[in-house]
Amino acid sequence: MNIAIFTDTFLPQINGVVPATINLAKGLAERGHKIYIICPKLKKIEKEIEFPNIEIIRMNSIPAYFYEDFRFTSPLSLRLYNLMKKEKIDIIHFQTPMPLGFQAIIMSKLLKVPLVGTFNTFFSDPQYLQHIRMNLKLMEITALTYAKIFYNQCDLITSPSQSTKEILIKNKFKKPIKVISYCVDFSIFNKSNSKKIKNMYNKNGKLILYVGRISYEKNLLYLLDCINIVLKKIPKTKMLIVGDGPQIKEIKEKIKTLNISDRVIFTGMISHEELAKSSIFNACDVFVTASKTETFGLTTLEAQINGLPGVAINAKGTEDIIKNGINGYLVKEGDKEKFAERVIELLTQPSSYKKMQKNAKKIAEEYSIKEVIQIWEEEYKKLIQN
To answer: Rounded CA gap, 3 and 11, in Å?
Structure first.
């Protein structure tokens, strides 16, 4: 098959959609399919991804004011249309409901090929709208209506988790919806430097890990309140924050107010490839997240792959990965004491921890790239044959 994947977010940007797109493209390419990734052109690209059967097509773009790293592209390109027609694209798949997603819709209609849209982000949630200072109920309704109109142009909507699918159905997305989770290439993770990393960050104590954007939708102010309780009760423990984002100044001020600046370590932004090779996951003891807006939670899964039990708010997306009491804990939102208690339990009860560590690795196996790519391949073929 010749498959065109449109995404408004791609390397060198760092977020969950980027590795999800790369893993999908590589998995399909390894099975002999030709993949075209259509994404924004950026000035700071040092080296383009190179992989057999994958071609990256960059479209001219300009910065968007409302979200760091996001770019606007033209919603239509005659050059791209001619290329898609020449290469005889069999199916079009978009990852984002933005300008390139709109272009994917137009291309599918002009070329008369099936269209797949993956719902990757609850951008209508208040936490996302807070970035543009428009976290109002009216804007939530407007954004959700926009999403429905956009995704209802598809022949198939895919969701990375069952909880996300249920929300889409509840909100009356009309087209067929299938759950196809993100896939992960387990072979990219290196564990050989874990002792070195552990000694570097906290040689004589435990490490709590957070990986992700430092932004409103990740609910980090709440998370820090929870972790502050842990740090008071287990003095030698430290928290490692991997990431960067528009809320970094506010988060650092919060840490200073809590008087835990010497207990929280920022690594800054680390690319997905570098993070996988760094052994950071394996050097830490517990993964934490307080996000309420996930469609899946890729970093949570990657922690599980590395045997890192998680503690999270019981919310959409995350609940599909963390099974309460089996490979981690889910805690009701608002109960900061319980959240801290669960983290402390994992840090201080070795027998319980080892059991969850084993379960984490076992459950993560169902997300291997081989298993998930086969599902994508079957769904694409069904649409093309109809």
So the answer is: 19
